[in-house]
From TrEMBL:
GO biological process, one term: positive regulation of protein catabolic process
Lineage: Eukaryota, Viridiplantae, Streptophyta, Embryophyta, Tracheophyta
InterPro entries: Ankyrin-SOCS_box_domain (IPR051573), Ankyrin_rpt (IPR002110), Ankyrin_rpt-contain_sf (IPR036770)
Gene3D superfamilies: Ankyrin repeat-containing domain
Protein name stated in the entry: Uncharacterized protein
UniProt family annotation: Belongs to the ankyrin SOCS box (ASB) family.
Alphabetic keyword roster: ANK repeat, Repeat
Pfam family, one: Ank_2
Segments for region (Disordered): 1-34, 415-462
Amino acid sequence: MDKTHKEEAVKTTCHEDTTSTDGSSMDEYDPWNPPYPPPCPPAVEYSLSESIRLVAKWSREKEAALGALRASSIIFPERIPKEVNHLFHDKVHHLAPILDKDSVRRFLSYMERNGQGMRWGSIITPEALNHMISQNAVKCVKIVLEGQAPELDGCRAGPNCMNQYGYYPLHRAAEFFSVDMIQLLVRHGASANLLTAGAEVIEGLLPLHVAVENTCMHKYLEDSLFPNHEHRDYSEADANFIFKLIHLLCLPEMKIFLDTTRLIAKYTDNLLDELWNYIKEGKLAETAVLLMAAQEQIRMGTSRKRNGDSKPDGLAIICDRIWNNNIALQSEKGQQVEARIKLNNMALMLVHVISKAGEGLDSYIQKHLEVPYFMQVPHLEVIERVSSILKDNGFCPTSEWTEIGNLCPYEDVLSSEDVPNKSGESDTNRPQERENQDDGSSNSPGEASSHGGDQCYLPGLKSRSSPTNGHVLLNAWISRWLGRNLLKAWMVRQLRRRKPSRMGLLLQVMA
């Protein structure tokens, strides 16, 4: 799949780079270096002061046009000098508290007084935008995407500009499961079909891959999806795995991850091919996440509109591909072939369950409230409801198959010394991280080094191997961050609805 995506990365970039927003061809120039506007006409009949004013006006218009074109184009690879990115990282500690509050007024004041390292070539640098997305500063990102504030001096952020690590803004937003940020980027033209490229990341990753594969790193899935195959018939163990996986994905804590995947899938082309790639590679957890989150789009098949009777839906197409692949494998021999057939059969079982019960499960998931962990629906109640939906659609999961064990949230597995700081790192974890960096591996999530090093620290973009402590720490930080922000949003909604009784109860619990 990586080789295919490498080829698609070039094709996608070339295709989208050669067409402007008005449909005109752009083959004749690089979007970063387009032809400049006509030079300022000579102003011989004007006074010196008037001539200076006209030249200054033309210069501003030229820079604004250049910045607008660059910000609205796909820039690949990044063109920002490393010195500019280093300057930004030297000053980012002053910007971080502003972005944490998402204060537009303070941000614009900072840009006006101390914006060096954040602007280059009439655009907001991709590294600066990357950091703003990491802190989920939605209001500030909206300001730089629009580029209308006078303090920005005509600069805009490009939603399709690759950063120095080889990925795009939408990849970063997908990494942090920020639905609001993803919606904002898409509204301003961000493409969900751009692929990672370069030495710092796995090449050929879509934002969809980042969302799906990082969802599979969630602690609930890691802790629970290790079925014991001893003394069991294979079909029983397979059903156990499939039903347990479905029950886990229906838990309230997983809603934000499924919502993110669903949103990105809505704007991703060739969704059936992406699902089929996961099935071919035997990635059942990833297959389940994509099926559960994007089943509405998948049912549409290759059409953007809801299928009529004339076209089979995407689930039927996937089933046909699995059957054809199994038939082709029958002519081969070896233990690996048997394992592949077994995984295909499990994927077929999963697709069958989703085709029958998927809409009911999705409707139930959508009803989960966005509230902190301690206020969510008890797991036992969720398990009973999901089992009821499955039984209504002809499946009979036993109590053994729906046993998910005692799931611990991240807060219960991290000591106070292991709590990540703002950058997603842990002080106690840094020596181990340095050792791993010396070995060429990436065990440090979150931001890049304070000096703007060349290493990319996005798990899911850097490595598809089993999660490390760094992955768990980042997921822990995401869990805490989500909990804090969801609690804040819930409190605001309750105040607007004037329900003081609930607020009083909440404050008592928090105390």
